[in-house]
Design goal:
Mean pLDDT: 93
CATH topology of the largest domain: Butyryl-CoA Dehydrogenase, subunit A, domain 3
Low-confidence stretches: 1-9
Strand content: 5-15%
Keywords: FAD, Flavoprotein, Oxidoreductase
Largest sheet: 7 strands, mixed
Number of helices: 12
Shape: globular
Structural class: alpha+beta
InterPro entries: ACX4-like, Acyl-CoA_DH_CS, Acyl-CoA_Oxase/DH_mid-dom, Acyl-CoA_Oxase/DH_mid-dom_sf, AcylCo_DH-like_C, AcylCo_DH/oxidase_C, AcylCoA_DH/ox_N, AcylCoA_DH/ox_N_sf
Cofactor: FAD
Protein name: Glutaryl-CoA dehydrogenase
Radius of gyration: 21 Å
GO molecular function, one term: flavin adenine dinucleotide binding
């Protein structure tokens, strides 16, 4: 038996990977994926419901994510081995299929936080931050959305940055900022009062004038510590301004890359719901036989699996395009819009299979059903992503 065959045997395909897309990964990627999957199944899955119910993040598992090479896998200076865009995307799927909240924690730190520095930072900034972030010694957050601005942040950003010698003074507010209550640093995006351009700043926490207050009473992604941030005359040295970010156009590069990651997260949410519904349908007996034997149940399962398969196929091509340098904003936007729409339909079908039991945490469906709503909305709403695609199709912007 060859090494590749051994690796594939050790890392079986997911039940939801109907066309076997995972098998296109290299043997080394397969082996790494297998280790990550074992960790997720053995250490994260048993506590996911409890942490979600308590609205807490499983931060004690951050060192394990770092040890397994999840952080910094995209960048030459921090990755543990050469890997592909598809491998990194599949890791996001694997985490989301077990716990979408933990996938968001990882995505904020590893995607938004590290990518901001890798894309927008100077060589000195990358040397200072990338290694510690990859090792999980420093946790990052990303502050773009504001109380009054979500979809229109490109033009409506109100947080300001004023140059004062070798320092900047930041004032404003941010909302829905994941990881912010425990992050060691937050990338804050603010409008330069001198040239009206958006710039990025590394704010080390705690900082004088910086407060992060957890948003309570959430009913989706409860394991994510979203916060309201207030910045009152927060002083940031010039050396902590992202040196290669001079406008929102530069920031858009970061968003393009991370939006593709959210598309894979959406697939993972759908996969988690599908796996739970499939297992439930085989165990739940009604009228003397498992409900999996009924035509209507099988139709729902087949539709859910078709949605997942179509979404994976789209995103596999998107990953290829990223590797080829051919991925553009409208490609990521289409993938995020389509996969989240399919996810929403899929989790609803899967919840329906479980009937009333589908709304209880104990049956493995309620978390995915609730968490899907947040994934559907963040990193660009469905409507905004569709309009980005519409602009690419027609050459006419339907928004300003």
């Amino acid at each position: 038996m060859t090494d590749q065959m051994t690796t594939l045997t050790e890392t079986p395909l997911l039940a939801a990977d109907f066309y076997g897309f995972q098998s296109t990964l290299t043997p080394e990627e397969q082996a790494s994926l297998g280790r990550i999957r074992a960790f997720l199944e053995g250490e994260l899955k048993p506590i996911a419901d409890e942490y979600w119910d308590r609205a807490e993040s499983a931060v004690h598992l951050i060192p394990r994510f770092a040890e397994l090479g999840v952080f910094g896998a995209a960048w030459p200076e921090t990755r543990q081995f050469e890997n592909s865009e598809l491998y990194r995307a599949w890791v996001a799927l694997e985490i989301a299929r077990v716990d979408p909240s933990s996938c968001t924690l990882v995505g904020v730190h590893n995607g938004l936080g590290m990518t901001s520095i890798a894309v927008g930072g100077s060589e000195e900034q990358k040397a200072e931050w990338m290694g510690p972030m990859a090792r999980g010694e420093v946790i990052g957050a990303f502050g773009l959305t504001e109380p009054g601005h979500g979809s229109d942040t490109a033009r409506g950003l109100e947080t300001t940055a004023t140059r004062r010698g070798d320092e900047w003074v930041l004032n404003g507010a941010k909302r829905w900022i994941g990881n912010a209550t425990f992050a060691d640093m937050v990338i804050i995006w603010a409008r330069d009062t001198a040239d009206d351009q958006v710039k990025g700043f590394i704010v080390r926490t705690p900082a004088i004038g910086f407060t992060a207050t957890k948003i309570e009473r959430k009913q989706s992604l409860r394991g994510v510590q979203n916060a309201d941030i207030v910045l009152e005359d927060v002083v940031v040295p010039e050396r902590d301004r992202l040196q290669r970010i001079d406008s929102f156009r530069d920031l858009a590069v970061v968003l393009r890359l991370t939006r593709a990651g959210v598309a894979w997260q959406a697939i993972g949410v759908a996969v988690g719901a599908y796996e739970a519904a499939l297992a439930y349908s085989k165990e739940r007996v009604q009228f003397g036989k498992p409900i999996a034997s009924y035509q209507l149940t099988q139709e729902k399962l087949a539709t859910a699996l078709s949605n997942i398969t179509a979404s994976i196929a789209m995103c596999v091509r998107l990953a290829e395009m990223e590797g080829e340098g051919e991925q553009h904003d409208h490609h990521s936007a289409m993938a995020k819009a389509f996969t989240t729409k399919m996810m929403r339909e899929t989790v609803a079908l899967c919840r329906e299979i479980a009937g009333g039991n589908g709304i209880q945490l104990d049956h493995g469906l309620a978390r995915f059903f609730a968490d899907a709503e947040a994934v559907y909305t963040f990193e660009g709403t469905y409507d905004m992503n569709q309009l980005i695609v519409g602009r690419a199709i027609t050459g006419i912007a339907a928004f300003r």
